[in-house]
Here is the input.
Amino acid sequence: MKTLQSIKARTGEAFGAPLPASTEAQVDAAAEAAAATFGDWSASAGSVRAALLRGLASALEADREALVPLADEETALGPVRLNGELDRTAFQLRRFADMAERGDAFKFTDDPAVAGGPPVGHPAMVRVRVPLGPVAMFSASNFPFAFSVLGGDTASALAAGCPVVIKAHSGHLHLSNRVFGLIQQVLKAQGLPAGLIGMIQGGGSDVGVRLVQHPAIAAGAFTGSTRGGAALQAVANARPRPIPFYGELGSVNPVVALPGILAARGAELAATLAGSISLGCGQFCTSPGVIVLLKDAASDAFVTQLQSALAAQMPHAMLTPAMRIAFDAGVAHMIKAGVTTLLHEDGSAEAPRPFLAEVSAREFIAKTALHDEVFGPASLIVRAEHVAQALDVLRAVGGSLTVSLWGVETESAEARQLVRHATQIAGRVLFAGVPTGVAVTAAQQHGGPWPSSTQPMTTSVGDAAMDRFLRPVALQDAPAWLLHRQGQAC
Amino acid sequence: MKTLQSIKARTGEAFGAPLPASTEAQVDAAAEAAAATFGDWSASAGSVRAALLRGLASALEADREALVPLADEETALGPVRLNGELDRTAFQLRRFADMAERGDAFKFTDDPAVAGGPPVGHPAMVRVRVPLGPVAMFSASNFPFAFSVLGGDTASALAAGCPVVIKAHSGHLHLSNRVFGLIQQVLKAQGLPAGLIGMIQGGGSDVGVRLVQHPAIAAGAFTGSTRGGAALQAVANARPRPIPFYGELGSVNPVVALPGILAARGAELAATLAGSISLGCGQFCTSPGVIVLLKDAASDAFVTQLQSALAAQMPHAMLTPAMRIAFDAGVAHMIKAGVTTLLHEDGSAEAPRPFLAEVSAREFIAKTALHDEVFGPASLIVRAEHVAQALDVLRAVGGSLTVSLWGVETESAEARQLVRHATQIAGRVLFAGVPTGVAVTAAQQHGGPWPSSTQPMTTSVGDAAMDRFLRPVALQDAPAWLLHRQGQAC
Here is the structure.
């Protein structure tokens, strides 16, 4: 029997007893159990879905005193952050509960018959949406609550009427198991089948691949590395019947800061940016990895300010030993590519020190090795000759969850160009503040062109996340009994 | 220089002079010319887009006397059908013009700031949509107007703010060239750049592959065979930066007919169904390829009625010699798989005779060779022991553009099961009439699970077709000048 060993993130020591990895039979059983619940769950009322999501939120909150220390031991993210993340996760569950109760999943377009021949005349059409089926949900390491077992993917899939099979992240196994225990209690208390939310665990890619390949699985949702997500997407595409795979992958999140705002508020912005770069030890998908500056005195001063502010940051241990190793490798990769190092101190075996380097826009654009995300507290200053070259830098980045534009408060041709280029490569464009921190709200878009996500038209955060699991269907000349059921699943 | 030869569909003779295939340099030039127009077109007003689309519709109508005979020579679809299709194409262009003018592409979600810390508090967010960029559009053979040069993909992409590079279908080269000439006149008359709508042509897959691989191309739209679409989708996925690829592929379009309605209206339904199976020589993506019947006297009578009605049909020549050959191969494939032949007469070298066969549900489910679409006037009756087995047949089909359910006017557990299973595999579920004929309207959904489309959440017909080319972007703390521009591209 394969086993999995949890690790204390702060020390690298073993944490708790080894846990069994899921067998192939267990993976299949979880997918099949989810499929067995699909008919009833897809036909469930919004109030039933809302009650489950609210029950799960309350269960998380009620067990906070146990969950947060467990999460802290396995991730080193600290109790302040983890308590906040638990709040956010409960908030998110309740937000999707409200949407389910309001009937957002059951909204439809009524398109009455028009008499006469085509193209003007047409039969009566009603456009509804139907849940896809069981969703394979891959937890992320860096948000052990909000993008894990009961995170946004699970919440939005359940709200849409889809069962979920969770692949637990091996970076927080005991936390995942404890949350899964809560889930089972809530399902039982509400008279819902245990298979509606299943969980599997494994160390390598084998159990996840088997899950995505299972014929009963109708969609995948993933948050994690570009390599891991691309591999699973390829598996989803290679199925006899390919399925949608929603992967939220790597992102360098460029920040473009113009001289005017840096001259006025450089020190303050440097402090804010340094905090964002090192927040959570840089282990955010929205961590700002590229800072685009022009070549002028205000930008020069800002580089010095940022360097000092970043040197004062004390990043905590990384989530896993593998990530710590990958961070050093990523930094070495950048140095090898010829960047000028500005800040590069030795860290501990668990916690790295922030890394800052600089390169010309010309070199950045030419060296694709510099376009990859380095997961951790590293950032690269890219110096452009002028705004037109900054646009080329954005074009070279290609796809990103966010772009931040600092200093375009006034309309100008350059400001319009920056906005146009930023919106062309990113899912979210910020005009103030830093990209870390993703609001769970109606207008959020967390997903952009490749490599930031595999399905750039969709979001994994915010109200539209539910749309990923609802497929449109046109009902033509539907009988009266069926139309009476609209506003409710069939 | 490679050349392409158009063929008279009715006789197989050469039609007109050979035409040059696009060179690699010409493919690249078309993509680059489209990219050069993207900035301005993505920022164009709805009224400008509407004027172009209406100008194109009028140009098609004004040239009808030349276009229809040309199309008829190359496709054998006949003037009645082709005039109707031209009307539909103009209607569709004007419908997207109206949407562009109404500002549908510029609608946004305003999400004002909420004071306080997260998760409740959040910055001001505005969710807009931005055009993807130049679209590679692959014409279909079977709709030389409506799914070709100025078809729904081109119309919806232009309305969304995307330039288009058309890959002309080699089945109607002269028609494509003539329509492209009209486009160039309209662009010139409206002072728009020639590169906004480009066109390339080629006989094999080489020019299409090069187009999809071009870095300037931001999305693909395709209507055609499963094999061709899957190959191009693989190319889109294998790019250094994968792009969305909207392929509308093969579909068997099951019709489930229950005994009650067949007892009451069998003869009439058989005549309607026979017309649908042989309409356009069965060359419709919505042609009913599988007829699911139960084992009872009314169904037996219906089989005889359908057989007679189908024997009386006189399908015209197929679109191309290759399709004629593929039809015979598909029929032979079915026979080899062990179906019982009910109607199988020799056709001419150009026009096939309708083919009808029967198989048990058990055999159909077991033999995946029978689940593939046979493009042309062929249909397979699948006899199920009971409704539960009919559900298994739908599950075996897996993904289809349409399912038709005849005889579920009254609510029952079986009716609900049929609806649930039909909506799970199809993009459109009909409760009367036949699946051929796809209304261009608000609630239409022309796209379903694999293999019927590569992106089952999207439609290639109807108002939502435009959504394929608009990507959501959240603007966080956007400055006032930018918000004033909302309702219009930046």
User: Anything to note?
Assistant: The radius of gyration of chain B is 24 Å. DSSP finds 15 helices and 17 strands in chain B. The first strand of chain B starts at residue 3 and ends at 7.
